[in-house]
Amino acid sequence: MLSRKYRFLGLLAVLFAIAFLIPVFLAFKFRPIFFGESEGSSSPQLKFSKAVQIVGGERYLQISAAPGQNPSVEKDFILMAWFRVAALPTEGKRFVLLQKHDYTLNFAPGYALALERRGREILPAVYWRSLKNQGRWYRFSELLLAPKDWFLLVLSFSDEGVLGLRAAIVKDSETPRMQVLGGYRLESTLIPSSQSDLIVGSIIPSRLRGYVGPFGIFSGYNLRKRFEEIFSQILEDPQNLPEALKAEEVRLWFGGVDEERGDAGQDRHIVRRGVSVKVKDLHLKKNLRKKSERKKEGGRRKLQRKQESV
Are 216 and 76 spatial neighbours (Cβ–Cβ below 8 Å)? Predict the structure, then answer.
């Protein structure tokens, strides 16, 4: 009789332990479900809480042209930007993510960053063309990208004439790493120079939808000797400027937009070494025209389709 009582109490203890431990185990295993994305999660969205939404032809960042946005002879040049796109380009199409050239011309001097699809592959591409009509679109190695992944593109051009591209993709439960996507040895004098504004996003109507996070332009003498250190710091702390950079080497830095400061546009700002640049240098364009007005741009759209098709 006594042994039955002890067995019964033992069974109750086991059941109590199971009932207590299972919820605790589930809480730790599925922590984001119980605590939300804002606590205990490494969600990429958290890293760029001030990211700006971009919509092809409707919503993009337009930054007034400045000399520091162009590469220069004898100086190394770095352009970096974080993006997140809702969908990838379809076969034979190109998503222009960033550009500084006259988009109404086929062969205008300047530069641009884009994504292309070739079969099942997504290839980053760089437009790089000088005033002497040298240069073209340069394709790089495949990027294993999925829709809604945050990804980083880092373009570099050394004073020795090497055009290179690196990338990193933020995946859940994976530590992002910088990967080299290739390079081209060009003439060191093949320097893009454009008086056009810098457009982040697409000024031409397209299916591009997504977000842009921090981006920057850096230029200086012998910067290539610190390339690896700079690239590593960009990846380790994407919200802030790399410590390896000197103040005079920072030509442009955008850390994000504080949406809480209003939607009028005048309160939006670029951050350069922690100092707000004049508001007029940044225009957040939201182009919501009527269909009748958009039809008038048929010629320009046809030209863009030619540029996107290969």
Answer: no
pLDDT score at 88: 94
Under the banding of pLDDT at 50, 70 and 90, the label for residue 289 is very low
Tokens of 156: 């570099």
d(CA 149, CA 170): 6
Cα atoms found within 13 Å of the Cα of residue 34, Cβ hemisphere only = 10
pLDDT tens per residue across span 147-181: 999 999 999 999 899 999 999 998 876 778 899 99
**pTM of this prediction?**
0.73
Residue matched to tokens 């000197």: 246
Q: pLDDT tens digits for 25-82?
A: 333 333 332 222 223 333 444 467 788 888 888 888 888 888 889 999 889 999 999 9
Enumerate domains of the chain plus CATH numbers. Answer: 50-308 (2.60.120.200)
pLDDT at 156: 95
Tokens 């939300």 appear where?
Answer: 36
Q: What is the DSSP string of the chain?
A: -HHHHHHHHHHHHHHHHHHHHHHHHHHHHTHHHHH-TTSS---HHHHTTT-EEEETTTEEEEE---GGGS--TTSEEEEEEEEEESSPPPTT-EEEEEEES-TTSTT-SEEEEEEEEETTEEEEEEEEE-TTS-EEEEE-------TT-EEEEEEEE-TT-EEEEEEEEE-TTS----EEEEEEE--TT------SPEEES-SS--S-EEEEEEEEEEEETTGGGGHHHHHHHHHH-TTS--TTS-GGGEEEEE----GGG-SSSTT---EETTEEPPGGGEEEEE----HHHHHTTHHHHHHHHHHH--
- Token pair belonging to 119: 């079969």
